[in-house]
């Protein structure tokens, strides 16, 4: 394929060329059946773009259909650019999470930057102004030769794009594990606010309506990117760099403002951003959803490189571009808005009544395909899968001094303070950030109102590997808890499912198990999945990543007094909410201290999750500070709460399983003595286990008889990341 | 009291600054960068943070050549009050309304965090609400905030009491720990920290509010 880009002569369609487009022989046979003739080179490219895993979800669709996607709060579920959820007062939050894994591994800065750009575009395409961003990053082990440059590049790329665009990055996660040595994960989330009655969708309507191209010019960057993202990596990976796009956040910012002005003018019938597979995918989407055909004249497409072929224009993934169907009478007004923002505006085609995707270039027909078949006849596979074997009984865990155990966690980049990373992101632009990165969920006020929204992103891949079903449940439960710990009512979630090669039954088994767990938990916790993305083939030389179904979740805090956002004070009690068994299987302690990942994932009791979380929200007014307990257990959560407050803490227990166990459905709470009494009484009524486990005060952290100065622990915790990567 | 906020393509703190101006009592309008004149009767002009024109060349360099820049310079020359924050400070140095330049941070990374500052002079409409020597906390968010100027300029800034804010622990390598400076007539302030992000207690700090309140108090019609 590389040879053909400079080659003006269209190559003959050979089995090798078909294979180079990522199409299997039976998929090519299906193309022949649909069009009844050999495809042109451009047509082959179009099919390849539409039918690759990234765009067609051909391996995952069957299972994605099983997820709960509806609820009274849901305005629009999966299938559009992003999910739309009601937040009251005629307003909606629009959000989605999407991966940019493969490009980020090949070219970390641009790969991550354009991942952020793509997800922001998904949000403002629907008429929402982006107000918050998050990212979930997974890298290989710290000592791996690629990790350092990937971390620097990805973090700078995310910051470079988001900071310039002007959206606050308010939460996220970052992990290191050898399973990501050959495939890093960059999952980017964005959320925006819109009026609930002014959401824009992609379905075209009306025959003879102008199809308008907006934004940046088309170049050769990213040609074949989506196909690249649908294959495993091997040693030829460096050759794939030209398939990575280049981002321009300044243009994206102008595109945002111009699109929102255009939408307000009433000129827009439908709009779709050009993401993966660019012009092809966006045009087919608009036509298919509106039961219309589309005719495009490529001579009118604004280009920034000479002599681009139809094939290149249809497959380019140049960034910061939109396709729109316009009300013809508003053309002059629309053009004036784009002129104001110095962006390209070109009528490149029209909607047609026949079911055709007709591509003309230099007075030649380059493609003439049945449009609906491109979208609806994509292959769909029921891939064979084998359920993950139950793990063996866990070996005994040696005892450890609790402060030594905590120090091991704080010295690991997995659990250290992430300021080195988050300081590189503007978390405060728009001046509505109530809680920025570093404290569980981020919280952003809905501009000009008393409401705010909480955002979190969670998954514990070790759990999913050991037990996909529990791991899937746990990812949802942890996200739900992180929202609850701010006082928010969890509304809905987006899933970013990162797995290895689905053609391997054991990988497909991980996927199926995780989806089942996610579905169960989302149903039980009333948190439907309203958008998402699947990234498969995260493998290098046959080595798959840990299964990583990232859950991004959004909650609503109706008024400032419902938010739990304070810090612990000296003299306050530390309460533990939820039942502790001391589950150490797959725990952070086991991995970071003993280099082990045996044992099962902690079981998730969804009833207990709901009961304990509801208790926290119902009693928010008595709680000064609250945190969910996740990996690292009570010890890490309690340390973080003490560190945030700058106040010491004494916990009268030094049992490793109690302190580092990762039992679910638990929170820690800081509150005054009287409030603690009250909470105990209320907990009794609600059948929620609550115990006083410690008290804040002094300047040391103490677990039983094991003790260290808080300042020393905080220095270790804050110094790890800079010491490792600075 | 009338204020304007200049909007360049790529400004992204324009709304935040307008919110802070309005909260302090200024009737505030936005002025597009292609305008060649500022509205009549303005008491105050804000040059907001962001990435004007993408800042792909030098931060603020292209903004300094934009149609509105000449009007801004004329307004400052006539003795109008101007505040430039972050990218706005960079633009004020590029237009030569303020001396010196902002270089890349010494650590080469973008930095967004709360920083401690000392108010060095209370002798201006911007800082009159603080006491000289008062320590405050404001957020910074920049990649190019490393203030530099030739030794004579630095000596003049010091000698004329024109250093408005100094960092307590300089995060970006700025000469003489400078976070903000005043013009010769003390009516133009350029600063890297963001007072508009610290003017509302809900945002975790309100040390910036006194700056806007002071401006409103001094610019209010008698």
Annotation keywords:
heterodimer; A: 726 residues; alpha+beta; seven-stranded mixed sheet; 26 helices; 28 strands; globular; disordered N terminus; B: 222 residues; alpha/beta; Rossmann fold; two-stranded antiparallel ribbon; 5 helices
Please give a structural write-up.
By secondary structure, chain A is α+β, with helices and mostly antiparallel strands. Chain A contains 26 helices and 28 strands. In chain A, the strands form 5 sheets. A 7-stranded mixed β-sheet of chain A has the order 8-10-7-11-9-12-13. Chain A has a 7-stranded mixed β-sheet with strand order 23-25-22-26-24-27-28, sandwiched between helices. In chain A, α8 (108-124) packs parallel to α11, α11 packs antiparallel against α14 and α16 (402-410) crosses α21 (588-594). Chain A is globular and about 85 Å long. Chain B has one domain: 3-Layer(aba) Sandwich (Rossmann fold). In chain B, the strands form 2 sheets. A 9-stranded mixed β-sheet of chain B has the order 2-1-3-4-11-10-9-6-7, sandwiched between helices. In chain B, strands 5-8 form a two-stranded antiparallel sheet. In chain B, α2 (67-77) links the parallel β3 (44-47) and β4. Chain B is an alpha/beta fold and 222 residues long. The longest helix of chain B has 11 residues, at 67-77. In chain B, 55% of the residues are buried. Chain B is built from 5 helices and 11 strands. The chains are: A alpha+beta (726), B alpha/beta (222). The A-B interface holds A 156, 159-160, 163-166, 248-251, 253-254, 257, 340-342, 419, 422-435, 445, 560 and B 9-10, 12-13, 15-16, 19-20, 32, 34, 49-51, 53-56, 109-113, 139, 141, 143, 194, 196-197, 199-200, 202-204.
Quick take:
The complex is a heterodimer of chains A (726) and B (222). Chain A is α+β, with helices and mostly antiparallel strands and 726 residues long. In chain A, 36% of the residues lie in helices and 23% in strands.
């Amino acid at each position: 394929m590389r040879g053909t880009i400079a080659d003006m002569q269209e190559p003959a369609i050979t089995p090798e060329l078909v294979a180079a487009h990522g199409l299997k022989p039976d998929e090519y046979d299906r193309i022949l059946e649909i069009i009844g003739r050999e495809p042109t080179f451009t047509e082959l490219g179009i099919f390849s773009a539409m039918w690759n895993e990234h765009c067609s979800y051909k391996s995952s669709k069957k299972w994605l259909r099983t997820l709960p996607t509806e609820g009274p709060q849901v305005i629009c579920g999966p299938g559009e650019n992003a999910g739309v959820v009601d937040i009251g007062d005629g307003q909606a939050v629009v959000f989605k999470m999407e991966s940019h894994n493969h490009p980020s591994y090949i070219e970390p800065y641009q790969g991550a930057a354009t991942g952020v750009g793509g997800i922001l575009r998904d949000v403002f395409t629907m008429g929402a102004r982006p107000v918050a961003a998050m990212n979930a990053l997974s890298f290989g082990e710290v000592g791996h030769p690629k990790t350092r440059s990937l971390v620097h590049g990805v973090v700078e790329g995310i910051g470079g794009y988001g900071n310039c665009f002007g959206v606050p990055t308010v939460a996220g996660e970052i992990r290191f594990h050898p399973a990501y040595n050959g495939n890093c994960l960059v999952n980017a989330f964005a959320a925006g606010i819109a009026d609930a009655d002014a959401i824009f969708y992609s379905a075209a309507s009306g025959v003879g309506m102008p199809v308008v191209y907006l934004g940046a010019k088309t170049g050769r960057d990213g040609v074949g990117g989506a196909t690249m993202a649908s294959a495993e990596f091997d040693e030829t990976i460096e050759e794939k760099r030209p398939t990575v796009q280049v981002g321009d956040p300044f243009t994206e910012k102008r595109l945002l403002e111009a699109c929102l002005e255009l939408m307000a003018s009433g000129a827009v019938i439908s709009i779709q951003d050009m993401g993966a597979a660019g012009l092809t995918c966006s045009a087919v989407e608009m036509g298919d959803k509106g039961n219309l055909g589309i005719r495009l004249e490529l001579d009118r497409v604004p280009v920034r490189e000479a002599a681009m072929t139809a094939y290149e224009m249809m497959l380019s993934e140049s960034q910061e571009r939109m396709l729109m169907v316009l009300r013809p009478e508003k053309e002059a007004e629309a053009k004036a808005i784009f002129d104001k923002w110095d962006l390209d505006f070109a009528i490149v085609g029209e909607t047609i009544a026949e079911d055709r995707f007709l591509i003309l270039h230099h007075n030649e027909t380059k493609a003439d395909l049945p449009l609906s078949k491109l979208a609806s006849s994509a292959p769909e596979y029921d891939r064979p899968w084998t359920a993950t074997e139950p793990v063996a009984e866990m070996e005994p865990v040696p005892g450890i001094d609790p402060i030594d155990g905590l120090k091991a966690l704080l010295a690991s980049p997995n659990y250290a303070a992430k300021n080195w990373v988050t300081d590189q992101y503007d978390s405060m632009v728009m001046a509505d950030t109530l809680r920025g990165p570093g404290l569980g969920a981020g919280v952003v006020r809905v501009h000009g109102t008393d409401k705010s929204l909480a955002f979190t992103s969670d998954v514990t891949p070790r759990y999913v590997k050991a037990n996909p079903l529990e791991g899937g449940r746990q990812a949802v439960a942890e996200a739900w808890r992180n929202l609850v710990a701010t006082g928010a009512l969890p509304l809905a979630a987006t899933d970013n499912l990162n797995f290895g090669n689905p053609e391997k039954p054991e990988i497909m088994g991980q996927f199926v198990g995780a989806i089942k767990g996610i579905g169960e938990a989302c149903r039980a916790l009333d948190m439907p999945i309203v958008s998402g993305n699947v990234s498969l083939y995260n493998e290098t030389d046959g080595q798959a990543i840990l299964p990583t179904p990232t859950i991004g979740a959004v909650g609503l805090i109706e008024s400032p007094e419902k938010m739990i956002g304070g810090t612990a004070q000296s003299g306050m009690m530390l309460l533990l909410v939820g039942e502790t068994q001391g589950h150490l299987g797959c725990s952070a302690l086991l991995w970071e201290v003993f280099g082990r990942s045996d044992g099962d994932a902690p079981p998730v009791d969804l009833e207990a999750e709901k009961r304990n979380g509801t208790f926290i929200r119902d009693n928010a007014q008595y709680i000064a500070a609250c945190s969910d307990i996740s990996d690292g257990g009570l010890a890490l959560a309690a340390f973080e709460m003490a560190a945030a407050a700058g106040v010491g803490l004494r916990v009268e227990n030094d049992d490793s399983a109690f302190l580092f166990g990762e039992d679910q459905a638990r929170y820690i709470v800081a509150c005054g003595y009287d409030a603690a009494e009250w909470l105990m009484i209320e907990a009794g009524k609600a059948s929620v286990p609550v115990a006083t486990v410690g008290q804040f005060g002094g300047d040391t952290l103490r677990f039983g008889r094991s003790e260290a100065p808080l300042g020393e622990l905080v220095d270790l915790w804050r110094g790890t990341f800079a010491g490792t990567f600075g | 009291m009338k204020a304007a906020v200049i909007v360049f393509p790529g400004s992204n703190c324009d709304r935040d600054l307008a919110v802070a101006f309005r909260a302090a009592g200024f009737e505030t309008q936005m002025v597009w960068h292609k305008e060649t004149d500022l509205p009549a009767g303005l008491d105050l002009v804000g040059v907001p943070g962001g990435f004007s024109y993408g800042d792909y060349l030098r931060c603020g360099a292209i903004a300094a050549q934009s149609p509105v820049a000449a009007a801004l310079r004329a307004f400052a020359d006539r003795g109008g009050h101007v505040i430039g924050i972050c990218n706005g400070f960079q633009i004020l140095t590029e237009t030569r309304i303020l001396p010196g330049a902002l270089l890349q941070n010494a650590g080469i990374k973008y930095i967004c965090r709360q920083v401690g500052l000392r108010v060095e002079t209370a002798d201006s409409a911007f800082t009159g609400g603080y006491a000289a020597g008062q320590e405050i906390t404001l957020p910074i968010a920049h990649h190019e905030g490393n203030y530099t100027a030739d030794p004579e300029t630095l000596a003049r800034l010091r000698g004329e009491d024109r250093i408005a804010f100094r960092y307590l622990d300089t995060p970006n390598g700025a000469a003489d720990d400078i976070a903000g400076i005043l013009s010769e007539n003390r009516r133009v302030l350029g600063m890297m920290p963001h007072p508009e992000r610290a003017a509302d207690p809900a945002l975790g700090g309100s040390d910036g509010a006194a700056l806007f309140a002071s401006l409103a108090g001094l610019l209010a019609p008698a």
